């Protein structure tokens, strides 16, 4: 697959923040960690909660529902109860436009 527009500008996602995007019908979490945008699935695999309502602390997003913690740079589970990690997608920024490769 190829990179497609995420419908967000990099400037829409300042460092330390998260925004949701819909890319080809898929809800994606965009998180800015130290000036770099990362993209993961937005749904916690434990109970289906939307991660954009959680808290971002550095590279870690905490699910607001049951406290599962994920690394937004690679989608890995840091703290359960989630049984597995998030889908992680390659991102590039061109002229402030965020592009995501859903693979």
Write the topology of this structure:
Elements: E1 4-9, E2 18-23, E3 26-33, E4 36-41, E5 55-57, E6 60-62, E7 69-71, E8 77-79, E9 88-89, E10 91-94, E11 97-100
Antiparallel strand pairs: 1-11, 2-3, 3-4, 4-9, 5-6, 6-7, 7-8, 10-11
Any guess at the CATH architecture? Answer: 3-layer Sandwich
Distance between the termini: 5 Å
Strand residue percentage: over 45%
- The shape is globular
Number of helical runs? 0
Structural class: mainly beta
> Please, how many domains?
1
Number of β-strand runs: 11
Parts with pLDDT < 50 across at least 5 consecutive residues: none
As a whole number of angstroms, the C-alpha radius of gyration is 12 Å
Helix content: under 10%
Instruction: Output the strand order for the largest sheet.
Output: 2-3-4-9
The CATH homologous superfamily:
Rieske [2Fe-2S] iron-sulphur domain
Global mean pLDDT = 97
Task: Please give the largest β-sheet.
Answer: 4 strands, antiparallel
- The arrangement of helices and strands along the chain is EEEEEEEEEEE
CATH fold group: Rieske Iron-sulfur Protein
CATH class, please?
A: Mainly Beta
């Amino acid at each position: 697959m190829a990179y497609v527009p995420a419908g967000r500008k990099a400037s829409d996602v300042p460092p330390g923040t998260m925004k949701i995007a819909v890319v080809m019908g898929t809800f994606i979490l965009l998180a800015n960690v130290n000036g770099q945008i990362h993209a993961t699935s937005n749904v916690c695999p434990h109970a289906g909660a939307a991660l954009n309502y959680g808290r971002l602390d550095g590279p870690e997003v905490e699910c607001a529902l049951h406290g599962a913690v994920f690394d937004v740079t690679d989608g890995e589970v840091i703290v359960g109860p989630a049984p597995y990690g998030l889908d992680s997608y390659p991102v590039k920024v061109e002229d402030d436009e965020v592009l995501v490769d859903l693979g």
